[in-house]
Amino acid sequence: MIRRSFFGYLAAKLPYETVQGGLPDPVDTGLPGEVTLQIQVGADQKSLVDKKKTILKKGVEVQRGALYGLFDEEKKDLTVPVSGTVTSAETRTGNYGRHFALINIATSEEGEASPVFAEALDQDPKGEASLTCLSHLPGCPPFTRLADEGIHTVILSAMEKDLFTNVNQYALQARKADFKRGADFIKELAPKARVVLVLPRYLEAEAGDTGCETVGVKNLYPNGNPALLAARLSGTPIEAGKTLEESGFLLFSAESVAAAGKALRTRSIPQEKLVSLTLKDKQTKLVNARIGTPIARIFEAVGETLVKRDHLIVGGPLTGMSVYTPEFPVDPDTDAILCYGPDNMPRLTDTYCINCGKCVRVCPANIPVNLLIRMLENGLYEEAVEKYDLDACVECGLCSFICVAKMPLFQQIMLARHTLAESKKSAETGGSND
Ligand code: SF4
Ligand code: SF4
């Protein structure tokens, strides 16, 4: 094991998007005729969906903002962003072999939202029912984890997850009163934790009236990476192989904090997600889209028509993933969607490493990526953990971005981590998730 410090790596100096010189006016993409909910499921659950054994199945009426269980009435694990009728429940297998249930819903008139959140607030604003509703907000904030033993720091982040998006910087500036309300509520829920607003330095003046302790950082990628933020605040790196939560940190995006403030003010759960779009001519647009809206409709709302060979990336240029259909929906954590025309696709190959060392110098976790990749290419995943710090990776994607041979390093790393996590789960459950 190598286990080196995060600090001292060659900074990549990739500037994030900013929101300066006037706030953009997000384009409202409207109420779509159909939405799709994507829920990650295990292999055993996939077969239940295929056998039509979900609670949300064809013909079931749903109400906006109500909570549902996918397989169990009692275990409410999803909320629906529109009122309407389920038209189908199907599955798809995504990147790294992950399975998803897709619940398609034909939208009816907007109508009344479910009273479930208002009732939960009346009962106990800090109770389990309220916090469960809030955990389904755009940005998927971890409200239900705030009371966990061992949580010592809550990071409210106005930094972005990737390049080509500015949703959190926008939310902090344009939704300031709701952000403050949401932040105050988080402080009440975690009275013993340190609650820190981390933001790009140019926004420090905006932070004064939020009442939060603030830490300004350079607006350069990957400074907004959750593991690097935690390391910055605590002065020590997150232990390799541990999650943020296992290390005592929780992270709320600024957009999700503002959404919580709005939910408390309006007594209903907002169902719109801010998304930064990059169009084929490289222009960027900020949109406000109903969760579950197909990508094609969102681009249509800003005047961009998608054609067959367009390349769509959800998430951002460094950590995003290609999607195979313009019907792919906006998820609660989709911050950016990029569209490259057929002639303008980023090149990714599987040619050989020339040992230039650039990936090693740029890696914020100081991983010897050039050696690690040789293990991964040969499927030696355990050895990659033991000898080359696979589990210290903070999933920033810089190695792939900088690789002169354009090797899919990040994708190989993610595949290896997913495979190891699945094997571990399988071993713990005696193989029942196979
Ligand atoms: S994605 Fe690549 S550059 Fe980023 S931490 Fe992991 S190995 Fe290092
Ligand atoms: S950047 Fe690419 S080519 Fe250079 S050492 Fe790393 S993997 Fe090899």
Keywords:
Rossmann fold; binds iron/sulfur cluster; 6-stranded mixed sheet; alpha/beta; 4-stranded antiparallel sheet; disordered N terminus
Give me a quick take on this structure.
It comes from Desulfoluna spongiiphila. This protein is of the alpha/beta class and 434 residues long. It is built from 13 helices and 18 strands.
Outline the low-pLDDT stretches. Answer: 1-9
Counted beta strands? 18
**Count of discrete alpha- or pi-helical segments spanning 4 or more residues:** 13
Per CATH, what is the topology of the domain at 117-266?
Rossmann fold
Average pLDDT figure = 91
Counting helices, strands and paired strands, the structural category is: alpha/beta
**What composes the largest sheet?**
6 strands, mixed
Strand order of the largest sheet: 2-15-14-18-16-17
The CATH level-2 architecture of the domain at 117-266 is identified as 3-Layer(aba) Sandwich
CATH class (first level) name of the domain at 117-266: Alpha Beta
The radius of gyration is 21 Å
Query: What overall geometry do the principal axes of the alpha carbons give?
Result: globular
Distance between the termini: 30 Å
Q: What portion of residues is helical?
A: 25-40%
Quaternary structure classification: single chain
Catalogue the ligands. Answer: iron/sulfur cluster
Strand percentage lies at 15-25%
